[in-house]
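Recall that a protein's primary structure is simply its ordered list of amino acids. Everything else, from secondary elements to tertiary packing, is in principle encoded there. The following example makes that idea concrete.
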Amino acid sequence: MRVIELQCSGWRNLPDGLRVEFPEAARLDVLFGDNGQGKTNLLEAIYFLSAFRSFRTAQAADLVRVGAPRAVIAVRVATRELERTIEVHLGRRAAGGTRETGVARSVLIDGKPVRGMASAFGLLSTVLFVPEDLGLLRAAPAARRRFLDFAVSTVTRAYLGEAADFQNVLRNRNAVLRGRVPQGSPSLLDTYDDELARTGAAIVTRRRDLLRTLEPLVRRFFAALHAELEVELGYVCAPEIAAAEGRVAVERALRSGLVERRSVDWRRGYSTFGPQVDDFEVRLAGRPAREHASQGQLRSLVLALKLAELSHVEAVTAEPPVLLLDDVPSELDPVRRRYLFETLQALRGQCILTVADRAVVPGMPHRSDFRVEGGRVQAVAAAQ
């Protein structure tokens, strides 16, 4: 899979009618320029056309250039010898006068509107690596849950619906616990507990399966930098969930735990048990990495995690995803930077990366360079 062309209008600081063509022969596309010129905005547009969300903001209105009524982004991709086009329109909505109330979103595939994101998700498969990811293992558990959930959804489209079903039940159960539902009662909670256990079991089993698949891959990539240290990945959840094998057993354990903790949930006004509070842990030489690993080891672990995710997507889809790197090389020391580029050279897929100074990128074959200045993009001779 590869990105052939990107078009943008009304997106962030990028000029209307912007069109970037990525040479077919290139496997590494380098976007370089000073900070604030629009490099990350370009990468964000490509990612949005893959995930239908931004990695920088939860507010879609932030993506539409100030003063512009709408943003339109489109990408042409080559996949399995076919070309597909993905297009997204974000239009500002107003409720009288000039007061904005949000953004209306529409998606077109090959020029035809589609209903819902699920049918378009996966047409462009990407793995994103941003500097913030380097702190993943010491971040809040929610960041690691997001990593797991997106990694699962990249290869399992059904997971989008499963996760949406779980979140809907969770919101309804929490509304009852907070007293926002007049008919809130233990019998109503029984119904929600059944549904939360059913939908939650799908989340838990898919997350655990992913970690089991990634573990040997992470070990292999990490060993290239720290061969003497053993790596383990573990899903962190309640003991009764950890002991349950298979979706039926997990569902049963979830249902039991929800009933057991109901009095606590009533007092707190929200659900305190289930996959919404789970986590995952990386252990290095038998000890939690977040507590005992050095900063360099933690960065090596995250690098190994991302490369493992990339390999997993390729194994499942039989096609390499597009790797998006946002100024990551500049955040790595020379040893890890060299390893990153050695690994990139061996990859079959396309990598699009941003850097302020392209001198940090070594001369590589099958490379193309683009200068980004004031939102404008100019192809230049690749640095050697």
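The longest strand covers residues 82-94. The mean pLDDT is 92.
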